[in-house]
Design goal:
Strand content: 5-15%
Shape: elongated
Largest sheet: 5 strands, mixed
Oligomer: single chain
Number of strands: 5
Distance between the termini: 198 Å
Order of helices and strands: HEEHHEHEEHHHHHH
Structural class: alpha/beta
Helix content: 55-70%
């Protein structure tokens, strides 16, 4: 009985130590579980510039891609070693980040890039965890040709490509909204986009013309003697028109004089005292021949 009484305090002490240990385990387990997802970072259009510093391994994937789905467990295991190796392991969903897809010219999935202090190289090796680890640990990336600065993600060309990809995704979402939410037919959506493109092109063209004319005006209009030459040309044209009008009036006067002479001849008649017959449809030569023939006939009769 005394032995049992002596053992009771020991059990009480054991219980007093067990509960704090269990509490510590419960508190530490969620932290360990929540630490693993943080090892794989996500890059978006808004914070992509953070990859320009330090060393990064970035995977571009799409949820619907079968090859990407097979790579995800391997990439997660590789990300768990990232903190130990001092490398940031990240992923980019191209369906949610179309700007980054255009900025890096992603043409196949999955695509992996290595970045070291803003210098990018496209990974072309095997896609296993050991290959990824050796690529970073042994610095195999040094033997690869880096991406040209012209095609770097921070270049003007790639910024333009990023904006173009964002615009295409925006147009696609608008199309889906009009066809699915508003019930507009597909051809109606195409007509709307065609008209918007047409008017936008016309507006942009006119704006560019106005800007070009303002920045680089035409030499013809900017010269000092342009308006003087213009006035002189107009005066010369006016004088020329007046001369032509005067010549036309002179020709009309000559025609009137000829008409009056013809009337006077008709009134005077022929040299024999007979009025000249005006035969409709006959020319002067025919009339002359008829007059000569009649004269010869009169001579024969006499």
């Amino acid at each position: 009985m005394s032995a049992i009484m002596l053992s009771l305090p020991g059990r009480a002490d054991l219980r007093s130590w067990t509960w704090p240990l269990l509490l510590l385990l419960l508190l530490s387990t969620p932290r360990a579980a929540s630490a693993k997802p943080d090892s794989l970072k996500e890059v978006t259009d808004g914070d992509w510039e953070k990859i320009m510093t330090g060393e990064w391994m970035i995977e571009f994937y799409a949820p619907w891609c079968p090859a990407c789905q097979q790579l995800q467990p391997v990439w997660q295991e590789f990300a768990d070693w990232g903190d130990d190796m001092g490398v940031n392991i990240a992923k980019v969903d191209v369906t949610e980040q179309p700007g980054l897809s255009g900025r890096f010219i992603i043409t196949s999935l999955p695509t992996i890039y290595h970045c070291k202090d803003g210098i990018f190289r496209k990974y072309q090796g095997a896609r296993t965890k050991d290959d990824f680890l050796s690529f970073v640990d042994e610095q195999k990336w040094k033997s690869m040709e880096p991406v040209s600065s012209w095609f770097g993600p921070s270049s003007f060309l790639m910024n333009s490509m990023s904006a173009l990809f964002k615009l295409s995704m925006f147009i696609r979402r608008c199309h889906n909204y009009m066809t699915e939410q508003l019930g507009i037919p597909v051809w109606g959506s195409y007509v709307i986009f065609g008209l918007v493109t047409l008017f936008a092109g016309l507006t942009l063209g006119l704006l560019l013309v106005f800007i070009a004319d303002y920045v680089v005006p035409s030499r013809r209009f900017s010269s000092h003697d342009y308006y003087q030459r213009k006035q002189a040309t107009e005066q010369q044209r006016l004088i020329q028109n007046q001369d032509e009008d005067q010549e036309a009036d002179g020709e009309e006067d000559d025609d009137d004089d000829e008409d009056q002479d013809g009337v006077w001849r008709n009134r005077r008649g022929s040299p024999e005292g007979r009025p000249e017959a005006r035969v409709q449809g006959y020319s002067d030569e025919a009339l002359r021949k008829r007059a000569v023939g009649s004269r010869e006939a009169d001579e024969e009769d006499s």
